[in-house]
Structures are given as C-alpha cells and as structure tokens.
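ERR on first pass: missing label on line 2. Operator R.T. fixed the label and resubmitted. Corrected input:
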Amino acid sequence: MSQSYTSAASAASGSSLSSPARVQWSTRMAFILAAVGSAVGLGNIWKFPYITGEHGGGAFVLVYLACILAIGIPVMMAEIALGRRGRHNPAQGIAALVREAGAHPFWKIIGIMALLSGFMILMFYTVVAGWAFAYAPKAATGSFVGEGGDAIGAMFGGMLADPVGLTIWMTVVLGLTMAIVVRGLQGGLEKAINLLMPGLLVLLLVMVGYAMGTGHFAEGVSFLFKADFSKMTGTAFLVALGHAFFTLSLASGAIMTYGSYLPDNVSIGKTTLLIAIMDTVVALAAGLAIFPLVFANGLEPGAGPGLIFVTLPIAFGQMPFGSAFGTLFFLLLAIAALTSAISLLEPTISWLTEKFQMTRIKACLLAGGLLWLGGLGVVTSLNVGAEWTLFGKTFFDMLDYLTSSWLMPLGGLLMAIFSGWILKKTVMQDELGMGSGMLYQLWSFTMRYVTPLAIIIVFLHALGIVNF
Ligand code: TRP
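pass 2 clean. output:
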C-alpha cells in the first residue's frame, strides 16, 4: 500500500529545517525506487562485473559485501539523514546544519564538495552512458554476428575515435536527463522512474534466464561465490571499498538531495537497508547474467573495462538469439545509466532554484549547457584531444580521478566525522529514529571510528605512504 504525503506534512513537522511547502516524494516507495535507480547504474552492470573478474571472483565479492554492510550502509544512512535534516540542496542544507550545531564554517565544505562531485561525475557519466545507447542499435542490427575479438575490439575503438558520434549520443543522454528533471520531482523524476525501474528489472531477469540456458550457469555461480583468498590483495580491498561508495552513489549530493525530499515519518535505517540490498542484488544478478556467457564462449572474465563492450559482444555474436539479447542487454544498461544521471543532475538544479530562485527550466538550461560543454571536453579527450593532458591525465581521466579518488572518499570522511563527532547526538538520533539503542550505538561507532579509519587507510595507500 502506498501512503500519500503532502508538503503540508513537512511544514507541520517541527524537527527539520524546512521551508514551508517544499516538495516531497509522494510515497516511501517513490523514494526507494528513485534511490535504487540512482544506485543501480554503470557501476553495477559494467564496473562490478569487470572488477570482480579482475580480482579473481568470490573472495573479492565477499570483501565487497562486507564493505557495503560495514561502511556503505551506515554512511548512506548518515547522508540521507543529513539531507532530510537540512531540507535543502546540499550546499544550503549542510550550511543550515552547521549553523544549527554552532560548528566551524569549514564544515560547509561538505555540501559544496557534494555538489561539485556530482556535477563532475555527470560530465563523463553522460558520455559513458552514451556508449550503452550506441550499442543497443549496433546489437539490434546484427553488427556482432560471427565477428571475432579483433573486429569487435576495432568496433569499440572506432566508436571512441569518432567525436561526432560520441557527441551525438552524449547529447541524447543529457537531453533525456534534462527533459525528465525539468518536469520536477513528482511530475518528472517519479514518473520516469516508475516506468524505467520495472523495465530494468524485467530485462535483468530475462538476461539471467538467458544465461541459465547457456549450460555454463554453474561456472558463473562458482566464479562469483567461490572464495579463493589467495587472489585477494590489499589493492583489491581498496577497490572494493571505493566501489561500495560508488555503487551506492554516496558522497556526490544525489542521495543527500533525494533525502531532502523524504517525508519525516519514513524510517531511514530500514529504507537504506532495502536500497543497499536491491543494489547488491542487481550487481550480483548482472554478474550472473554476464559470466556464464563469457565462459560459454571460452572468453576471459578478467578483461577489464572492455568486458561489457568487447568480450560480451563477442559472446552475443556467437550465441543463439544473440542479437536480440544483446539489444536487451544494452537497453538495460542504458536505462540503469539514465536513472543515475537524473539523480546526478537534481542536486545542481535544486541548488540553482533554491539559492538563486531560478525557474527549473532556466536552471536545467544553464546546468545542461555547462554539462554539454564538459561532455564535449570528455568526448574530445578520447580522440582528437587525447594529447591535451594535465599531470599526464586527459580531461576524462582527470574528472574520474578527482571524483573517485578524492572528492568522494574525502566527502565520505567529512560526512562521517561531521555526523559522528560534530553534530549534537540528538540530531542524528532524531533523524534515524533509533533512540539510543544498540543499533544507534553500532551506527555511531561506525561513523566515529570504522569509516574514518578505513578511508584514511585508502588515502595513505593512494599517496604511497602505506603499502600492502
Ligand atoms: N551509483 C552509480 C552506479 O553504480 C554511479 C554513481 C556514482 C552515482 N556516484 C553517483 C550515481 C552519484 C548518482 C549519483 O553506476
């Protein structure tokens, strides 16, 4: 049963720093679907399978699951709670919390970093999502049929080398994202998500079913779930932790902004658990859809980033009904990427509309214009502009590096310290609604010690100060 909340409910509640009549999700389910839509994306279907493949399978999966449970879930709870308490876009919401707590203005940086990080991720996310959009028609027209690895590798290389084609697909993704977001929370995001998420689920189930028919399903299962710890390295641990942040869309403003629209009477703990479970199930299902096809065709699971765009198309080119299922697969990837892109645009739009009183249309056009220019930079960094580098990194590499290696972990670290040490205890107790019981103590311990320590270790490792 879905219960309807009105914005009057937020105005009536005294606990949050809300301005009256700010729009909210129409139901708890709408929020869950939107957050799952944000979390489930290229990270689940493209990145998770290939990093699992690179790090040897089962043992890596186990460590990844531990990171989701011990760090990802508590941090997500904190981010949703911060968003709901602030009841604004990340920058103004955090600023309000800093004022409420009488904390040093330095902490406002959390909101600013979140906005920046989401905006920068979106600049390259639209380009990579464009690859999925480009591959669906390629599969549909039978481009992979009977082709070998060289030809399919050349196809991928050819796509990356073509700035015009890449720009067209990037523009399609950005245009769709803007068209949805401009219509607002209930009229745009909710409607699109209600349509896209069931579609995604059906396509995923169909793909897993298809993988079951290959006769190599058991191999896929054992690859994903049989832990061989001899293959686990220190680096694999760090990759797993980094991916836990990425896959749950943490520390980039998306979850905080979605949390700012969450009605007061929804339980953050239960909701977060549900979101994390669904995100994990989708990642595992993607693995179960992909690896049996890889094994059935005698291909390499550890192919790296090309697993989806080269290895898998080879498999589709050799299998019965490969063109049809290839089309479905890339459609699935495109939908997953689109619902994440929506959540990456919303924080900026909410900031522009709340801080500068812009209309949504103006905000979307302004942000979209800048994102398009940024996307153009990313596109050219893959081909004609590949030589323009800063510190040896192209624009694309730079955006990825700055967000994944710095802004997101640093944002996670600051959020953990801010909610664990700086805010008054009652603020988070209020929002999480767990009183001061065992679960709250567990959450608080994670925020204060486990998360900061884990992230600091990641930084020390990245800086080459510790090695393992
Ligand atoms: N979670 C998304 C995925 O798995 C990617 C992502 C990272 C993201 N950070 C984000 C999406 C912030 C939305 C907002 O593909």
